[in-house]
């Protein structure tokens, strides 16, 4: 009798723990969903007012198109049970509910959907102000349906069929799986679309200031908040040891963001003689992106180190890409997400408590982290190039000079986001 009562108690506790975990994942997904507002405000603030409506439309459609396509196909490619092409991606029979998703773990679908939308929207900022809306929609759909899910299947199913998981690769919440993929796609897109008119004069980069730094700052605060769901929710459970682990992840995330902002602030202060606002904001984001891979694998001191390194590197990277490579990225998306996504992933090889070089683990994890992250970057860059090159040769990537000068709001959407008397771009 006592044994039966204990079994009933254990089952009840297990059921409650499972429900709490599902609730935590759902709430975390809602926070990540809200990050789309942060990306929108950040991109609006860092660019010209005449393209505000276009940016809103792109970010809305990233989420809308991504939600439908990931439900219909992307989730099955990423999490299906059957391997295709020797493990290159996955699929599942329709009766298992992965194509046109109809299984019962809806909270996992929602959580993964908002991650997928995040990868897509990274591209938007890097090509703001000069890209055809129709072309962007097509690319966003392909990225969320095929490009992101294929590479995601290499690690996140957390089984022996995921080759990077088997290799010992660590990317807790997606510095490479999400951010480096989005950053690599953004790099290719920015190169193929070309710089904004007036960005480079006689070979020298010209500043094109954003029109609303308040929007940019608010966007960063929203992203910072949403990242607690992005990283904390990736514990994928709540209760007991999982509660301790998830809250530790949240603290590591916050510390990295904070020190990233501080590092960028003082680095630019020493470099420019002024406390640069946009670089400081990007420093916070760099710390967030950098710690996303290792937030569950490093100590608080490791989080501070990763955040500080990324906060400084993002400044150097933005300058190098803008002035040396002459690639026009209005919001710094390539540096924040691509460069810091890679750096943050690799730094786990140094700072991981289990296997890190500085903790006696040797160089094995450092090597795995390096080639694992490079695999994501190379895949995203190659796949994006093929898609965008085809689009460029068919329907075109870029709007006309007249449309770019007068603004995408007017020509792509037939309306201006601001009344004429407060527009700064006339």
UniProtKB/TrEMBL annotation:
From what superkingdom does this record's organism come? Bacteria
Q: Which residue intervals define the domain Ammonium transporter AmtB-like in the entry?
A: 23-418
Q: Which Pfam families does the entry link to?
A: Ammonium_transp
Chain segments annotated as transmembrane: 21-42, 63-89, 109-129, 136-156, 176-193, 213-230, 250-270, 277-294, 300-321, 333-353, 373-391
Q: Which InterPro entries match?
A: Ammonium/urea_transptr (IPR029020), Ammonium_transpt (IPR001905), Ammonium_transpt_CS (IPR018047), NH4_transpt_AmtB-like_dom (IPR024041), RhesusRHD (IPR002229)
Q: How does it sit in the membrane?
A: Multi-pass membrane protein
Keywords tagged on the record: Ammonia transport, Membrane, Transmembrane, Transmembrane helix, Transport
- List where in the cell it is found: Cell membrane; Membrane
Q: Which Gene3D superfamilies match?
A: Ammonium transporter AmtB like domains
Q: Which PANTHER family match?
A: AMMONIUM TRANSPORTER, AMMONIUM TRANSPORTER SLL0108-RELATED
NCBIfam families reported for this sequence: amt (TIGR00836)
Q: So what family is this one in?
A: Belongs to the ammonia transporter channel (TC 1.A.11.2) family.
Question: Could you tell me what this protein is called?
Answer: Ammonium transporter
Instruction: Report which gene this protein is encoded by.
Output: amt
């Amino acid at each position: 009798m006592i044994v039966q009562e204990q079994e009933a108690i254990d089952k009840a506790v297990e059921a409650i723990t499972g429900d709490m975990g599902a609730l935590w994942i759902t709430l975390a997904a809602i926070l990540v969903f809200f990050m789309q507002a942060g990306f929108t405000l950040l991109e609006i603030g860092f660019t010209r007012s005449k393209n505000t409506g276009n940016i809103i439309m792109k970010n809305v459609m990233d989420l809308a198109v991504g939600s439908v396509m990931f439900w219909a196909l992307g989730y099955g490619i990423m999490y299906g049970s059957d391997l295709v092409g020797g493990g290159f991606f996955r699929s599942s029979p329709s009766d298992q509910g992965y194509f046109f998703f109809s299984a019962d773990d809806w909270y996992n679908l929602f959580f993964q959907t908002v991650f997928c939308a995040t990868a897509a929207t990274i591209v938007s900022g890097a090509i703001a102000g000069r890209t055809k809306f129709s072309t962007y929609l097509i690319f966003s759909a392909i990225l969320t349906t095929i490009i992101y899910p294929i590479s995601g299947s290499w690690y996140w199913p957390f089984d022996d069929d995921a080759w990077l998981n088997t290799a010992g690769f660590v990317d807790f919440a997606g510095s490479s799986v999400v951010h480096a993929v989005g950053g690599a796609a953004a790099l290719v897109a920015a190169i193929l679309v070309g710089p904004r008119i007036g960005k480079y004069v006689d070979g020298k980069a010209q500043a094109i200031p954003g029109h609303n730094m308040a929007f940019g700052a608010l966007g960063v605060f929203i992203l910072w908040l949403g990242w607690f769901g992005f990283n904390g929710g990736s514990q994928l459970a709540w209760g007991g040891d999982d509660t301790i682990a998830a809250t530790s992840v949240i603290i590591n995330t916050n510390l990295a963001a904070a020190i990233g902002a501080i590092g960028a602030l003082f680095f630019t202060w020493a470099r420019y003689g002024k406390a640069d606002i946009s670089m400081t904001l990007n420093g916070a984001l760099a710390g967030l992106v950098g710690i996303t891979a290792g937030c569950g694998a490093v100590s608080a001191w490791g989080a501070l180190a990763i955040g500080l390194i990324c906060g400084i590197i993002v400044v150097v990277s933005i300058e190098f890409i803008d002035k040396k490579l002459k690639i026009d990225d209005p919001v710094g998306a390539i540096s924040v997400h691509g460069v810091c996504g890679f750096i943050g992933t690799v730094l786990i090889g140094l700072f991981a408590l289990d296997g890190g070089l500085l903790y006696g683990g040797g160089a094995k994890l450092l090597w795995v982290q390096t080639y694992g992250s490079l695999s994501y970057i190379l895949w995203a860059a190659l796949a994006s190039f093929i898609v965008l090159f085809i689009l460029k040769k068919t329907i075109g990537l870029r709007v006309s000079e007249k449309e770019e000068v007068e603004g995408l709001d007017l020509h792509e959407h037939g309306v201006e986001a601001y009344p004429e008397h407060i527009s700064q771009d006339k």
